[in-house]
Amino acid sequence: MARFATRTAFFLFTFFALPAGAQSFGIGVGGVEAPYPLAAGTADFNSDVYVAGFYGRGTYLQGFIGTDQQPGVLGDSASVRLVGADLFTGGNPSVVRIPGDLPVRIFLPVRLGASYRYVDVKDPLVSRSRTGHIGEGTLGIGGGVGLDIPAALTAGLGSVFAEAAYVVSAGVLADFQRSEPEPLAVRAGTLSLGLRVINLAGSRLGASVGYTLRTSGRSGRLDTGGDFIEAITSSGGLTDYETMHLVRAGLAF
Questions:
Q1: Entry pTM
Q2: Which percentage of the chain shows pLDDT scores above 70?
Q3: Burial call 165-185: b when 16+ CB within 10 Å, e when fewer
Q4: Is the Cβ–Cβ distance between 16 and 236 less than 8 Å?
């Protein structure tokens, strides 16, 4: 608990220390498709989710919720509820800066991520619901490009910040509902697009829009560290796990 509080405090300090226009609060909608590995079998989810979160350059914290209907164990319909949270933090060290009226930045995004999924399956013909508390930790690196347009070039619209990045990450996940959590390898690719406009009408505030697409695969049971390396490096070492796409809009500050 103390470790989580420390990480949250570090995130908040990092987030609000960012320069004006580098952070935003947004809400949105998207979809999640995943076969979540629970102690009592797999729980399929394939439905819309609703998201809200804080987003910054290299750092974001978001939560989402959704419900789905899937076939039950006796042929009936089971209700599946999904609650998720993601915390990613890191940096965007610049590799190349192209000077000019429209300065372009090419950077290497580095991300440390922690994710949580609560899955609850309720079947009307089964006395007990099936639940899962799935945690995931990853480390990733990728490539990105940013464009910063000063207010002088936008005809009074405000300062415009646009970024696109793709990050490949690897790590482990486990269902902590099990008496003995079984770690699995996970590898993911995340595409992030963002656009922020600040200093609207001479104020510090502005508007933001963004899109995230994340696809991942997971391994089977890991017996040794060698199994982990093989799973995340081989082309056929993983099965499809979670696919998420989110569209959001909100307030930049």
A1: 0.84
A2: 85
A3: bebebbbbbbbebeeebebbb
A4: no
